[in-house]
Amino acid sequence: MATWVLVSDSLDERTSRSLAVATDWYRNHLNYGQTIAPIAMDEQKHAAQLDHIRSRAKEVKALRASLPKADFKMTELIKTANDQLWPGDEVRALQTRALWQAGSGDALRLGRG
User: Fold this and answer.
1) Residue 63 pLDDT grade (very low, low, confident, very high; cuts 50, 70, 90)
2) Coil, strand, or helix at residue 90?
3) How far apart are the first and last CA of the chain?
4) What phi and psi, each to the nearest 5 degrees, are found at residue 86?
5) d(CA 5, CA 21)
6) Alpha helices in 37-111 (DSSP H)
């Protein structure tokens, strides 16, 4: 992920990619927070935390509006990073991508068309 964010020479591209990562992180954080809301020990504090997450997500969305759109799709991200790390070395890029998939949550999707 860090390679994907930093590999470009374009400041706008790097910023766009970092905000795409932040967008995904806030989406997942909010999803988790909503999942555990029914078992929160302090409902008011938990609700305030969810409001804070929503607020930060809106701020990131606003920042992204003026930048090129970067799509955060983990498997494609790994492919792009590998292609840029090892230009012309398709075997190494494919090996690294396969290794990542074998050891990540993305591997769970491999059997689901």
Assistant:
1) very high
2) helix
3) 24
4) -125, 65
5) 9
6) 43-64, 74-85, 90-102
Cα-only R_g, the chain:
17
What pTM does this model have? 0.77
Average pLDDT over residues 39-65: 97
Question: Are 1 and 42 within 8 A, CB to CB?
Answer: no
| Separation CA 105–CA 60 (nearest Å) | 25
Q: Which of 35, 14, 32 minimizes the C-alpha distance to 24?
A: 32
Q: CA dist 31 to 22, 63, 90, 92, Å?
A: 14, 21, 37, 35
Query: pLDDT tens digits for 84-110?
Result: 888 899 898 888 888 877 877 555 554
Residue that is written with structure tokens 């983990």 in the block: 74
